[in-house]
Amino acid sequence: MPRTLTAVQAERLMTVVTGILGTEWTPPANPAWPVAFTNEAAASELTLYPDRKNSRLVFVLAPAYTDDDFGHRQRYAKYTPALTGHDTIDSWLADGDLDAVADALAVILERLVEVPLPERAAHPDPLGTERDLLAKHAQELAAHASSFAAGLIWSQPVADDAQRLATLARDLAHTATRVDELRGYKNPRR
Predict the structure, then answer these.
(1) Which of 73, 91, 116, 133 has the fewest CB neighbours in a 10 Å radius?
(2) Angle 10-15-19 (CA atoms, 0-180°, nearest 5)?
(3) Total-model pTM
(4) How far is CA 124 from CA 111, 127, 128, 182, 186, in A?
(5) 16 pLDDT tier (thresholds 50, 70, 90)
(6) Rounded CA gap, 112 and 21, in Å?
């Protein structure tokens, strides 16, 4: 079965990032957006994906998934490559010279992964904090849904956007469940 363009793009970027991060970070088994590297020793996860609207790469560092830390201690970095000779970030990821930007990516990634994540702060109002996070997730989901709809209308590739929407929907559902639990609902409605 031939590999999809998305898999080729993700695999090319994974190769460069793996060379920068070294063996402490484990790449995912299947290349697809978003790509998530894990570091067992540091209990961290580094997620990367293309932001097509702004023609840049986004990197998110967070603790390895736990119910207690979900969404509270993340750091972000962004990189906007020169797309000379390419119309979109997708075409740049598919056949651009990624090795030429390896040094710039190395600086960004080293700064991102070497600085410790902020300590988890005690929140006097966990329900308020979770509601704020829920609102943030809902806004992000709505923004990406609009982008996805525009891609459908303009006959652009939408599979990656659909995967990002699924990730955002999962995050939204997790936070909504946590809000319901904090409100005292034992069996949240599905």
Answers:
(1) 116
(2) 145
(3) 0.60
(4) 31, 9, 9, 13, 22
(5) very high
(6) 11
